[in-house]
Amino acid sequence: MPILTVQHKTAYRYARPVAFGEHRLMFRPRDSHDLRLLDTALRIRPAAQVRWLHDVFGNSIAIATFNQAATELVFDSTFRAEQFPAPERALLLEPYAQRYPFSYSAEEMPDLSRTVERGYADSGRKIDTWARWFVEGDRSLDTLDILVAITRSIQFQFAYARREEMGTQDPVKTLETRSGSCRDFALFMMEASRSLGFAARFVSGYLYDERLVGAGGGLVGGGSSHAWVQIYLPGAGWVEFDPTNGLVGGKNLIRVAVARDPSQAVPLTGTYTGAPGDFLGMSVDVSVTAE
Q1: Sheet of 237-242: strands edge to edge?
Q2: Disulfide: which of 62, 192, 205, 259 matches 265 by Cβ 3.0-4.6 Å?
Q3: Model pTM?
Q4: Using one digit for the tens of pLDDT, what is the confidence trace for 226-237?
């Protein structure tokens, strides 16, 4: 696999110097058997004091504090990593979990229970109805086939619409409008999967196009961060599903953070002290290059 370099730069601009409160960053991925982190760098302007911690999900979090005002605030994060994603055909489930429905084991369920619970209201059971279509009637009840079908149905039935505003769209609205951002599709698939009894969690990270590796100066992806879903499948563990692109198994996906809810995996949050009109705007630039 190629060695990938990810650069994520966020810049905020202000009309006059403002004071900055604490900022929370989720830019650094974790070493694992499927992603080997080679090196990282974090540059912040103006200078900040940075402390690191692991959140309740084990994500790597940087907390930045400031003691000087400025008209610009810049976070520039870079890391190099080598990825070893599991191909879809190599996913092996425990025999009891290969066909739907199945039950998680008594040993695993206490840790999975919150990721099985629905997190958003669906009084009309619209999401339930949509999800049940994949498991009712004369259909194969192969567990992995069901989840792949859900992933790719979202990809083909829903229209992608990039949104700059913070937060995620209510999953019922995503279903009704059949449109949304990658964050919205990830949340919708989480709720649909949970309605069928699957444990699901939100993933924040980056996407790259392997067809462009080594082409055109090495640029293989860019623009913004990405979001998708992990489903827990006994025997295979937490498996990646990207409903925006119809990807299964982590291919072309660089995972940074996982969480029970999208609000817990925001890449960058923070505050400033100043007048409402002081804020002039922000820019986000993400690039992925291959060595």
Answers
A1: 247-248, 237-242, 226-233, 200-207, 253-259
A2: 259
A3: 0.93
A4: 999 999 999 999
